[in-house]
Specification:
alpha+beta, five-stranded mixed sheet, 10 helices
């Protein structure tokens, strides 16, 4: 019998500082109708805090290409340059429209994994997805019909199809999908934005969400994979081109639109971390609250290597925030 290993550094717990900063910065813009300002404030805050983290990070999924995104662009090196070497995926505001409108479900999120292990979406913006929590893992197949997947999930979860909650982005492209889910007898949980939160909800107890279906962002699929690895869930995806030119360009770079991408394809490492802080209230976290002394945040921190899932509530004093950063607090 091998002696127990001593716990090593948990960088996921350091990432909470990053998402907290982004969430507080974005929350100041919640309900003010300017999604670009909310996103910009979150990006600035996130990048500022990332600069002090002991890591050699490369942004695989960021805010866009360098010329389009001066902060947290794809390929940017972040951290102080010391080990570990990691891939980084950021979404400073998952749900910019939700934030701007003051609606529920917006998160600030970040995911890390060992260098070279994170799938790079390249030019492919969208993918067809199916995601389930730990109890549904192995029961679904993205190539099966919606009805077949719901029936198999019903058996695995030991609950009637009529009680299954199916998360689907509210988009015109999903009209037929919604009709098939309802025809099968399941309940549609329609979300206007934020499919990272939607995927996580399938792995969260008592969220009411059992499965996520539909076409959503490829970068968000990679981030969700990092979270679901730690939660014990599963995501499958198939790249979905927006038009024929995108297909041609992507295939020239080696992307395969017939391949089913598993959780391990999207994040190959078994040592990945995920942190999310709620900007507005959601199914499993309460949004930022501003108080006389500062602000409170609630965060979810997941580490796949140890299998730990933590929810953390933090109290932030205004004067300490101002000392800590000048990024919009």
């Amino acid at each position: 019998m091998q002696p127990p290993s001593r716990p090593d550094r948990n960088i996921a717990l350091e990432m909470i500082r990053v998402t907290e900063a982004a969430a507080i910065a974005a929350a100041r813009w919640a309900g003010r109708g300017d999604k670009n300002a909310a996103d910009g404030a979150a990006v600035d805050a996130m990048r500022f805090v990332l600069g002090g983290i002991a890591m050699d990070g490369v942004v695989v999924i960021g805010e866009g290409e360098k010329d389009e995104a001066p902060m947290l662009y794809n390929g940017e090196h972040i951290g102080n340059g010391r080990p570990p070497k990691v891939d980084v995926a950021v979404d400073p505001v998952d749900g910019t429209t939700l934030t701007a409108a003051g609606r529920n479900g917006a998160l600030a999120v970040i995911a890390l994994s060992e260098r070279g292990s994170m799938f790079n979406p390249g030019p492919v913006v969208y993918m067809k997805k199916i995601a389930v929590g730990p109890r549904g893992r192995g029961a679904v197949d993205i190539n099966a019909s919606v009805t077949e997947n719901l029936q198999e999930l019903s058996k695995r979860l030991k609950k009637p199809v009529q009680e299954l909650g199916v998360v689907i982005l509210d988009r015109p492209r999903h009209a037929d999908l919604v009709a098939e889910v309802r025809e099968a007898g399941a309940r549609v949980l329609s979300i206007s934005d934020g499919d990272v939160a939607g995927a996580i909800a399938t792995g969260w107890p008592n969220s009411g969400a059992d499965i996520l279906l539909g076409i959503g962002g490829t970068p968000e699929g990679v981030i969700a994979a990092a979270a679901l690895k730690g939660l014990g869930g599963e995501i499958q995806g198939v790249l979905h081109p927006r038009n024929e030119q995108e297909r041609i360009d992507a295939e020239a770079l080696g992307y395969d639109f017939t391949r089913v991408l598993s959780t391990d394809d999207l994040v190959a490492s078994d040592n990945c971390s995920f942190s999310a802080t709620a900007i507005t209230d959601g199914d499993f976290l309460r949004g930022v609250r501003f108080t006389d002394f500062g602000a409170t945040t609630q965060s979810l921190v997941v580490r796949s290597r140890s299998g730990t899932v933590r929810t953390i509530e933090t109290f932030h004093r205004h004067n300490k925030l101002q000392e800590f950063t000048t990024a919009g607090f």
